[in-house]
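FIELD: query
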Amino acid sequence: MNDSKNPLSPHLQIYRWNISSLISISHRVTGIINVIGLIIICLWIGLLFVGESSYELIDVFFQSYFGKLFIIGFVWSYSFHLLSGIRHFILDLGYGYEIKTANASGIIVIVSSLLLTVLLWLIGRGLI
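FIELD: result
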């Protein structure tokens, strides 16, 4: 037991967030979101085999604002996780640890995931 009056973890009070920590934590969170999304998609596919009424219920959901938001969010989550995973792989190879490079690659992942989501949305809508 520590009888000292000093805080055990003073670094937590002075810690500054940076882009690399944000990307790393977001990579983990999007991994969890992707698993949940895939479970929902598997349930959706399973309901398609139940009958026409189930299909109509699912169709109403995906035509709703929340359903479209779910699809766009899932596509962004997958895109971000994929690009962030590539970034982590490059870091594992020993490249990109300089602060300037790490920050730039983090911003590239964020912007690219948004652009990829828009591109996939346009393709899905038949606009490209």
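FIELD: remark
The chain is about 80% helix and 0% strand.
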